[in-house]
Amino acid sequence: MCSEAAARYRPGMDSAAYLRHLRQEFAAFAACLDGSDLSAPVEHCGEWTLRDLTGHLGGGNLWAAAAVTEQRGDYQAPAAPRDPAALVTWFDGTCAVLLDALDADPGAPAWTIAPPPTVGFWQRRRCLETLVHRWDIQNAAGEPAGLAPELADDGVAEVLDVMAPRQVRLGRTSAPAHAVRLVATDTGSQRVLGSGEPVATARAGAADLLLMLWARLPADAPSITWDGDVELARATLAGRLTP
């Protein structure tokens, strides 16, 4: 893991805040499972259904918990139950396991997918992962709630500093061909995806920037304003910046 990435790592909030947001996002996700058609499709997630999305998030909870408590990244979570009631119980259990594992010193060691190899990495990563998938499940129900600006802003930083570099490192995409400036109009943050002089600037609320980076919102959405060479910038953003 490169030292440059480690030097860039700056969590956006403290451990207690991440865990508080994570509990809230888990509760909001679980609320969507009550009475839902688990065979319903989830937009932006390929051929996944609500059942698949729940299995992904719950399995990821157990995997991340093992990364903390067992210091390994090869844990294989069991398949999620098919029965709707059992699935809800199982998902709630995975949330409890992860929250228990993450209720620790953020500086304690852990196996991670990127620097730093600490519990704090997973506090942030699972919080932001759950944020996006909570939006996914609510969007599937036609009622996506907003994303807290501070948390969404941190999510933008994570895509640029952790997720996109990892996608390049794993050979899933090429390094951004052009630099793009991202300006969050509600938090005031400015960040640049890629290297060199930005060819264009996108301005929007932090939530819309995050959803764009995670390919949940098109780059030409009315809520995003652009200046510069928009065509080059949008081509850059079309790459697989996230898993």
Shape summary: globular
How many β-strand stretches?
4
**Into which percent range does the helicity of residues fall?**
40-55%
Strand content: 5-15%
Number of domains: 2
CATH topology of the largest domain: Four Helix Bundle (Hemerythrin (Met), subunit A)
Secondary structure tally, helices? 8
The order of strands across the largest sheet is: 2-1-3-4
In terms of per-residue confidence, which ranges show pLDDT below 50 for 5 or more consecutive residues? 1-9
Average pLDDT score: 94
Computed over alpha carbons, the radius of gyration is: 18 Å
Determine and state the CATH class of the largest domain: Mainly Alpha
Summarize the structure.
The chain is of the alpha+beta class and 243 residues long. The chain contains 8 helices and 4 strands; from the N terminus they run H-H-H-H-H-H-E-E-E-H-E-H.
Can you tell me about this structure?
This protein is α+β, with helices and mostly antiparallel strands. It has two domains: 3-145, dinb family like domain (Four Helix Bundle (Hemerythrin (Met), subunit A), Up-down Bundle), CATH 1.20.120; 150-237, 2-Layer Sandwich (Nonspecific Lipid-transfer Protein, Chain A), CATH 3.30.1050.10. 51% of the residues lie in helices and 7% in strands. It has eight helices and four strands; from the N terminus they run ααααααβββαβα. It has a four-stranded mixed sheet with strand order 2-1-3-4. α3 packs parallel to α4 (84-102). The radius of gyration is 18 Å and the shape is globular.
